[in-house]
């Protein structure tokens, strides 16, 4: 087995946390309110993004993920418009069941008064619809259109526009669809209160409050504003490096995770990295920005569609099972002196070895939609200092969370990846024949190392 860097200890992460900005909280890396809530039984969460490429703004790829971190390619060069370019694509799942793109039609150097539209029934194959000329007098550029569906079901596009009088000073405008086919639009209305020179404005709504994340094109920071109406007036309350994300950041997109927290994705075009960051207090504080695995450096400016789909990993509860490594097919989970390891187990193994490789699958101690695993002595699999081990249930909420795992799709048919309930983005994986909880790096090797097949119990 290939030797890999060891998983960082809890003490190492605490030291890293101490070095972060005061506004940055490592929720999801250290125990806290961040929980990886499970989708309904028999279902899976699916996140879809349609970015243009750092190497090519004439086409887009389509990626999907079940955890909003590990994005896998669904189709490369999935859509190429018949003319012009495609940049800053925003994706929408409409009430007609189809997916829609709206996008910038030209490069940043070009005068551009249009935004493009395309449609797909399966996210992989797209059909060009039309280029729409934004009806603003003396318009110079219409860029970065972003979908927004309001509480009344109305479909809107927030588009950044500049005039010929100052072609590099942008103002966000709202276009509202006036038909269900998304082919007719109301007159543009400027979002008031944000002031001049804000671009890539992305809006989400919680209750009666509209939250705008918008790039200040002068300072290159993503700012934050709120309003009681989609068109404002907005009040900007966070400027500069308020969230610890740094400058030369653009293209914010915000999505709510299964666990109720919020994740922002943004393009770190200044350093060539695509980032994500999480908040569990409704946008007040954010985790330290992390590079989005695999597609960072490839993908540019995208938004996210989240859906609940059928066909998630399926595993019965209150049954005994053994768990085989997906990529080391003679090796199985085994309790060895209270630590979970991955030895070879065969029909000729001893009865004690077979018993130590057999577990009862039960409802998650912290979330009944999740899973917990009990050995023959009644101890539960849990993580401790990022190591997988078996301990007696002490009845605390911490133990229950440490001992609960969420089923995610594995690397091969029938295999399952087990995401930590209280360390979202961390998975049970094998390393040097031991099992630990480690943060996904998005590679195929990690995906295979963290995939396990439930099989008939050895004992």
Task: Give the gist of this structure.
With 459 residues, this protein is mainly beta. It has four helices and 34 strands.
Description:
With 459 residues, the chain is mostly beta strands. It is 6% helix and 45% strand. The chain has four helices and 34 strands. Strands 1, 2, 3, 4, 21 and 22 form a six-stranded antiparallel beta sheet that branches. It has a six-stranded antiparallel beta sheet with strand order 27-26-23-34-31-30. A hairpin with a 2-residue loop joins β24 and β25. The longest helix is centred in the N-terminal third of the chain and has 9 residues. The protein is elongated. It starts with 9 loop residues before the first helix and ends with a strand. The relative contact order is 0.14. The N terminus is likely disordered.
- Largest sheet at a glance? 6 strands, antiparallel
> Low-confidence parts, pLDDT < 50 over ≥5 residues?
1-33
Shape: elongated
Distance N to C terminus: 27 Å
Strand content: over 45%
Helix content: under 10%
Number of strands: 34
Tally of helical runs: 4
Radius of gyration: 24 Å
> Which secondary-structure class do the elements indicate?
mainly beta
**Average pLDDT metric:** 90
């Amino acid at each position: 087995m290939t030797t890999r860097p060891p998983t960082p200890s809890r003490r190492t992460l605490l030291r890293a946390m101490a070095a972060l900005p005061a506004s940055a909280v490592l929720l999801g890396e250290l125990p806290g309110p961040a929980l990886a809530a499970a989708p309904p039984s028999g279902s899976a969460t699916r996140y879809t993004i349609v970015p243009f490429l750092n190497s090519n703004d004439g086409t887009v790829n389509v990626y999907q993920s079940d955890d909003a971190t590990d994005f896998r390619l669904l189709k490369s060069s999935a859509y190429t418009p018949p003319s012009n370019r495609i940049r800053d694509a925003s994706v929408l799942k409409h009430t007609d069941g189809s997916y829609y793109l709206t996008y910038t039609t030209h490069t940043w150097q070009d005068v551009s008064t249009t935004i493009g539209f395309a449609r797909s029934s399966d996210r992989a194959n797209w059909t060009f619809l039309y280029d729409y000329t934004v009806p603003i007098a003396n318009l110079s550029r219409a860029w970065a259109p972003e979908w927004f569906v309001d509480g009344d079901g109305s479909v809107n596009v927030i588009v950044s526009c500049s005039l010929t009088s100052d072609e590099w000073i942008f103002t966000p405008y709202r276009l509202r669809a006036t038909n269900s086919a998304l082919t007719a639009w109301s007159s543009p209305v400027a979002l008031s209160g944000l002031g001049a020179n804000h671009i890539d404005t992305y809006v989400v709504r919680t209750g009666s409050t509209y939250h705008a994340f918008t790039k200040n094109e002068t300072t290159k920071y993503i700012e934050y504003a709120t309003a009681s109406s989609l068109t404002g007036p907005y009040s900007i309350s966070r400027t500069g490096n308020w969230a610890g994300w740094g400058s030369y950041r653009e293209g914010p997109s915000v999505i709510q995770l299964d666990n109720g927290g919020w994740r922002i994705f943004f393009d770190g075009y200044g350093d060539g990295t695509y980032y994500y960051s999480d908040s569990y207090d409704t946008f007040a504080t954010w985790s330290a920005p992390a590079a989005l695995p695999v597609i960072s450096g490839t993908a540019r400016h995208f938004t996210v569609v989240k859906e609940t789909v059928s066909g998630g990993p399926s595993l019965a509860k209150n049954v005994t099972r053994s768990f085989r490594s997906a990529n080391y097919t003679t090796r199985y989970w085994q309790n060895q002196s209270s630590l979970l390891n991955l030895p070879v187990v065969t029909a000729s193994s001893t009865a004690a070895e077979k018993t130590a490789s057999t577990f009862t699958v039960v409802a998650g101690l912290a979330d009944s939609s999740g899973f917990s695993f009990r050995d023959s002595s009644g101890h539960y699999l849990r993580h401790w200092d990022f190591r997988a081990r078996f301990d007696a249930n002490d009845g605390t909420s911490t133990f229950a969370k440490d001992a609960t795992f969420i089923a995610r799709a594995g690397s091969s048919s029938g295999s399952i990846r087990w995401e930590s309930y209280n360390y979202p983005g961390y998975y049970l994986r094998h390393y040097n024949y031991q099992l630990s909880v480690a943060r996904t790096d998005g590679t195929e090797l990690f995906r295979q190392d963290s995939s396990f097949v439930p099989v008939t119990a050895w004992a």
